[in-house]
Amino acid sequence: MSGVARLLVGMYARLLRLYPRRFYATFGAEMRQVFAQALDEARREGFTSLATLCCRELRDLPGSIVREHTVEKEKEAAMALWSGEDERRLRGLRLLARGWGVLLCAVILVPVASPYPPHNPALTALLLVTHSVVIAWFREVLGGRLLIVSGLLLGAAAMLGTISTAGVPSVPVPGRDLLIAGWGGLVGLLFAAPVVALGGLFLRVGRRAEGQAAAGEA
Questions:
Q1: pLDDT tens for residues 32-87?
Q2: Cα Dmax for the chain
Q3: Other C-beta atoms within 10 Å of 24: how many?
Q4: What's the CA gap between 67 and 77, in Å, rounded?
């Protein structure tokens, strides 16, 4: 490559730095190589081809630079808008999870726990649910997992408690055991479902928050 060609390639490489940073990092080296090859071919064809190539690049390059900067700004604006929407959605989900947890503790768990004697399995599960809600307030992923486990334990304790309190009838009733088991399962499901669902909601909030934090660091 002659001294004039090296000078033109160096000037072109400097002009490429006017592109947005990410575009230059992705395509800068390739564009410089393509221009150097085209310049070498034009130089072999003669001065007219060389001048035509330079004039064409000087004509097209400013418009291309402006266009890429416009596209880059539109991408940044869209990402900022998307990030803001994600943040608002995350705050809404977190508020819903915490409000649901407070409601579960204040309206459901406290009145239900009062009739149970100490060391009752259902009472133990209820206390575990309450503590899991408190943990989930500060550690959403961990608290969500604990809520799912404690919800399942609560459902099992409620089912067994319902079955055990059915008693033995004086007159045998056909299919009674099946009915009692079905009723116990329904009661267990009614106790477990809201707690497990709350745990899943806290898990979703925690994982989304972790994803946003990782995206922000990147």
A1: 888 888 888 887 888 788 788 888 888 888 888 888 888 887 777 666 555 566 77
A2: 114
A3: 15
A4: 15
Q: What is the residue extent of each domain of the chain?
A: 3-76, 86-217
pLDDT per residue as tens digits for the range 82-125: 556 677 788 888 898 888 888 888 766 655 555 555 566 767 77
Residue 90 contacts residue 208 (beta carbons within 8 Å) = yes
- CB 125, CB 159: distance < 8 Å: no
Compute the distance between CA of residue 192 and CA of residue 190 in angstroms, rounded to an integer. Answer: 6
According to DSSP, residue 115 is labeled T
pLDDT digits (tens, 9 = 90+) for 151-162: 888 888 888 877
Using only C-alpha atoms, the chain has a radius of gyration, in whole angstroms, of 34
Q: How far apart are CA 151 and CA 199, in angstroms?
A: 8
155 contacts: CB under 8 Å, gap ≥ 6: 188, 189, 191, 192, 193, 195, 196
- Return the structure tokens found at 95: 């508020």
Q: Counting every residue, how long is the chain?
A: 218
Q: Which amino acid is at 80?
A: A
